[in-house]
Amino acid sequence: MTSHTMTPAEADKILADNFAPWVLELGLSVVEVDAEHAVLRLPWDARLARDGGGLSGQAMMAAADTATVIAISAARGAYGPMTTVQQSTSFLRPVVDADVLIDARVVKLGKRMAFAEIGLMVDDTVVARASTVYALLG
Length: 138
Hints:
The protein is α+β, with helices and mostly antiparallel strands. It has a single domain, classed as Hotdog Thioesterase (Thiol Ester Dehydrase, Chain A, Roll). It is 25% helix and 38% strand. The chain has helices at residues 8-18, 21-24, 57-76; strands spanning 29-33, 37-42, 82-91, 100-109, 113-122, 125-136. Strands 1-2-4-5-6-3 form a six-stranded antiparallel β-sheet. A hairpin with a 3-residue loop joins strand 1 and strand 2 (37-42). It is globular and about 45 Å long.
């Protein structure tokens, strides 16, 4: 892991500079970041709700994936090209009219691969969990 601690402003710049416009439209912001994890906020937006009014799983999976990129970048000390190899998500509770905090924790960082566990929470209640594997390309 790195000795430089990335700031939330630096992490927000990684978001702005490296993600597709539709990901940026999720409105994610970095709340906290250090060499072992990143916490992002996914603000509630009715446009992301599915039938029945719950936040769509697709939005939560994209947020978890994005938070993982920020966490890996912080662990490496800077952004570098990487790609998702695997993501598994379990949805535990519906989210209605609430922001979600996404806590992505790097559990293993190698030279070519990185592994992370992600908790998605509303008011300290876990609403979903994800696990990701990334290939580090540069």
